[in-house]
Amino acid sequence: MALTVTLVSAEEEVWHGEASLVVAKTVEGEIGFMTGHEPVLAILAEGQVRITETSGTKVIVLAQDGFLSMEGDELTIVAGHATLES
């Protein structure tokens, strides 16, 4: 089972797909998400969102301002600004 991840900025959808692990920076520190994670709503801090696709490919997005929400195995990250780095 994989996480369904959607990462959007104010301008566009930056990344959408399935991932085995996502690590994001919140105002309270870094948090990692895998399938089965408890529901979370957190304020996004400026920094990297590191996504490991189910294939093992690493994706890095620089994000700032916004929030993230984890419900079931769906993670949604809404950033004021986000740039795909790799």
UniProtKB/TrEMBL annotation:
GO-annotated cellular components: plasma membrane; proton-transporting ATP synthase complex
Residue ranges annotated for the ATP synthase F1 complex delta/epsilon subunit N-terminal domain, each copy included: 3-82
Pfam annotation, one family: ATP-synt_DE_N
Keyword Glycosyltransferase: no
UniProt membrane topology term: Peripheral membrane protein
Principal subcellular localization: membrane
Gene3D superfamilies, alphabetized: F0F1 ATP synthase delta/epsilon subunit, N-terminal
Domain of life: Bacteria
The entry's keywords: ATP synthesis, CF(1), Ion transport, Membrane, Transport
Record protein name field: ATP synthase F1 subcomplex epsilon subunit
Locations listed in the record: Cell membrane
InterPro entries: ATP_synth_F1_dsu/esu (IPR001469), ATP_synth_F1_dsu/esu_N (IPR020546), ATPsynth_dsu/esu_N (IPR036771)
SUPFAM superfamilies in the cross-refs: Epsilon subunit of F1F0-ATP synthase N-terminal domain (SSF51344)
GO molecular function annotation: proton-transporting ATP synthase activity, rotational mechanism
Protein's UniProt keywords contain Membrane: yes
Lineage of source species: Bacteria, Bacillati, Actinomycetota, Actinomycetes, Micrococcales
Organism: Microbacterium lacticum
Protein family: Belongs to the ATPase epsilon chain family.
